[in-house]
Amino acid sequence: DADVTQTPRNRITKTGKRIMLECSQTKGHDRMYWYRQDPGLGLRLIYYSFDVKDINKGEISDGYSVSRQAQAKFSLSLESAIPNQTALYFCATSDYSESEQYFGPGTRLTVT
Amino acid sequence: KQEVTQIPAALSVPEGENLVLNCSFTDSAIYNLQWFRQDPGKGLTSLLLIQSSQREQTSGRLNASLDKSSGRSTLYIAASQPGDSATYLCAGRGGGSYIPTFGRGTSLIVHP
Question: Smallest CA–CA separation between A42 and chain B, in Å?
Answer without folding.
Answer: 5
